[in-house]
Amino acid sequence: MKITMRAILINLNDKQKSIIDNMMLVFCTAIRYSFNRLIERMVIARRSYGFKERVPKILVDKFIDDKEKFNKYNEWKKWTVINKNIKRKVGVKPDLWLINRKKLLGIAS
C-alpha cells in the first residue's frame, strides 16, 4: 500500500524548517532501514527452506575464468565472486552496470 501526503508549509521560520528537516531525515532513514531488514529476512527465509539462488549461466560465462574452482563454491560465495568481477570490469557505481550491462554481456553492440 502506498500512502502519499502533500502539504504546503508557509511562513516557517528557520527553527521550524530545521525541525521538519530532522523529522524527514529520521523518517526516511527508518523506512530505508526497515526495507533493508525485510529483504534480508526474505533471503534468509528462502535459504532456510532450501531455495538456491543460482548464478545465471550468461554471467558465469562472461565473468568467470576458472569455472571448476567457481563450481566448488557455495551459493553465497558465487554471488560474491560475480559481484567483485562486475565491479572490477564496470566500476563501483551500480548505475554503470544498468547502462552498460547489454554491452558487457555481449547481447548488444
* Separate helix tally: 5
Choose one word for the global shape.
Answer: elongated
Number of domains in the coordinates? 2
> Helix coverage percent of residues?
55-70%
Average pLDDT for all residues: 80
* Largest sheet geometry: none
Radius of gyration: 21 Å
Estimate the strand proportion: under 5%
- The strand count comes to 0
Give the helices and strands as they follow along the chain. HHHHH
Question: Could you name the ranges where pLDDT drops below 50 across 5 or more consecutive residues?
Answer: none
Structural class: mainly alpha
N/C terminus separation: 40 Å
Overview of this protein structure:
The protein has helices at 14-48, 57-63, 67-71, 75-90, 94-105. It has 109 residues and is mainly alpha-helical. The mean pLDDT is 80. It has 2 domains: 11-51; 52-109, no CATH class. The chain has 5 helices and no strands. The chain is elongated, with a radius of gyration of 21 Å. Helices cover 69% and strands 0% of the residues.
